Amino acid sequence: MAGLATLVFVISIATVNVNGLRAAAKKGFVEWLAATEADVVCLQETRAEVAQLPAEVVAPPGWHVVLAPARAKGRAGVAVYSRVEPDAVRVGFGAEEFEGSGRYVEADFGAVSVASLYLPSGEVGTERQDEKERFMEAFYGFLVRRRAQVEAEGRELVVCGDWNIAHREVDLKNWKANRKASGFLPEERAWMSRVFDEAGYVDVARSLLPEAVGPYTWWSYRGRAFDNDAGWRIDYQVATPGLAARAKQTRVERADSHEQRWSDHAPVTVLYSD
């Protein structure tokens, strides 16, 4: 992993919602982490405090680990694993309501800041959806300010994670049946468009695969969603334009079978290089 200021720039970043880090560790996450070639790994929905996690998760060989659990036990939680120690770490994004919510952590590596985001999932007609909308409003303002900050410093930012919104019809299999469901509401999709079109960030996977269906990153455990590839693309790497221009390849690390899954999400890995 090298900084943007060096002559040769190469960094591989992976992101995945683990759907409970303790459970994932027992089902294959530890083995996946040992095998991945990623330089930085962003996790969401860890749902655990440091004391609750085994040593192979808290201090795996060859990794520096930053855990940002939620104040509410058993909820949310984000993390950043990296091959080198971060230059600096920031937890939260300055919104008072969401401080301590375990939904945002950002780490600096040379001229690149890598963030792990877990945007609320929401549920139409409930307080959960209201919370999601408040989060979106506050987070959009942060994204605008943060881009201006990093670019003024000659740096780049990538926000990795579970954004809990499928942006376009090609981002979920059964889009017609989900037009009134949280995660594909018109106002949520419009908000994502603002992130890209107004705030100026880039959906890295979509920039590399402009017309591809999916590739999906989440499949319900219900029914045969995984076997039928009836999924949603809700896990993104959203980058400032300078870093996005360096993205060379992306892949969704979909398990070979339902039985081999260690989360209902799959890791999304992007290689950035000059």
From TrEMBL:
| InterPro entries noted in UniProt | AP_endonuc_1 (IPR004808), Endo/exonu/phosph_ase_sf (IPR036691), Endo/exonuclease/phosphatase (IPR005135), ExoIII-like (IPR037493)
Task: Give site residues, Transition state stabilizer.
Answer: N164
Keyword set, alphabetical order: Hydrolase, Magnesium, Manganese, Metal-binding
A single GO BP term for this record reads: DNA repair
Q: Does the keyword Lipoprotein apply?
A: no
Q: Which residue numbers mark the site Important for catalytic activity?
A: D235
Q: How is the cofactor bound?
A: Probably binds two magnesium or manganese ions per subunit.
All residue ranges annotated as the Endonuclease/exonuclease/phosphatase domain in the record: 14-265
Which GO MF terms does the UniProt record name?
Answer: double-stranded DNA 3'-5' DNA exonuclease activity; metal ion binding
Please name the Pfam families in this protein's record.
Answer: Exo_endo_phos
SUPFAM superfamilies reported in the protein's UniProt record: DNase I-like
Annotated site residues (Interaction with DNA substrate) in this chain: H265
Residues bound to Mg(2+) are N17, E45, D162, N164, D264, H265
Q: Which cofactor does it need?
A: Mg(2+); Mn(2+)
Active-site residues per Swiss-Prot or TrEMBL entry: Y118, D162, H265
Q: Which family does it belong to?
A: Belongs to the DNA repair enzymes AP/ExoA family.
**Stated name of the protein:** Exodeoxyribonuclease-3
Provenance organism: Actinorugispora endophytica
